[in-house]
Amino acid sequence: MKIVFMGTPVFAVSILEKIVTAGHNVQLVVTKEDKPQGRGHKLEFTPVKYIAIERDLNILQPKDLRDIQFINTLKLINPDVIVVAAYGKILPSEIIKMPKYGCINVHPSLLPKYRGATPIHHAILNGDKYTGVTTMYMDEGVDTGDILLTSQIDIDENETTGSLSDKLATLGADLLIDTLKQLEAETITRIKQNELDAIYTKMIDKSMGFVNWHKKSNEIINLIKGLTPWPSAYTYYKEQMMKILEVEKSNEIYEKKKNGEIVKINDKGFIVKTGDGSIVVTKIQMQNSRAMKVVDYMRGHKIEIGEILDIEE
Length: 313
Known about the structure:
Blueprint: E1 2-7, H1 10-21, E2 25-30, E3 35-37, E4 42-44, H2 47-54, E5 59-60, H3 68-77, E6 81-85, H4 93-96, E7 103-107, H5 119-125, E8 130-137, E9 147-154, H6 161-185, H7 217-226, E10 233-237, E11 240-250, E12 262-265, E13 270-273, E14 278-286, E15 291-293, H8 294-297
Parallel strand pairs: 1-2, 1-6, 2-5, 6-7
Antiparallel strand pairs: 3-4, 7-8, 8-9, 10-11, 11-14, 12-13, 13-14, 14-15
């Protein structure tokens, strides 16, 4: 099959590699523009661009998908299918209608649950026990097209958005290859989404990361896991921002202590009082410092029992 692939972040890399190794003819890779990164504002390639260069694939990074030159390039290729995996831009109808087998999106949720750009974050934030991947026909809505195939996976207790994304990318790559085979054989069945079951995700931003210690332990743990690796959950220790990167459940109860209070230090980290119990903080990143296990951090710095983790003064 002649394929045009459209994707940008790490999630899309495994899917592109699987298409190539399966022997499909990837005529073009479309990814978002290079962006300036870091203090030097050096232009950084997207993860998909790196792998496309490594695989010696043709690459385009259009600023505007309606650009006539870009549209004409796609028409010349005349792709059998366009595969989209976290590309990051909405496709115009002219592109959606172009390929013989349509535009196929690899979406990391079990649609119609978690439509939108942040389904993996929300599966963790909401404490879901399972999630999955859906391949679907694209239309002009946001993840509203007909479902082709789905694959389900359990969410492990210690799963973060980062680790779950890696698993779903692998799952999605395999599911896409199955989808392409069935499309070509014309054996696939398209299923309409039930709009009554549709749930849309909201965008994730840094302000969501502030830890409210009055909440229940499970809610706090889900927040920390759901915002790892980005944008990270955070609190303040002695007016310095402290990112909280890893935590564990604690069965210890401290009814007479204040929520957010550091109540104990053990061989894994420090225990913080929550709205319904406590949690153990095991990995942190202090302001202008690197990420460290708490036990390593405390070899050179003091964490004081009785301090209240709170907002910046």
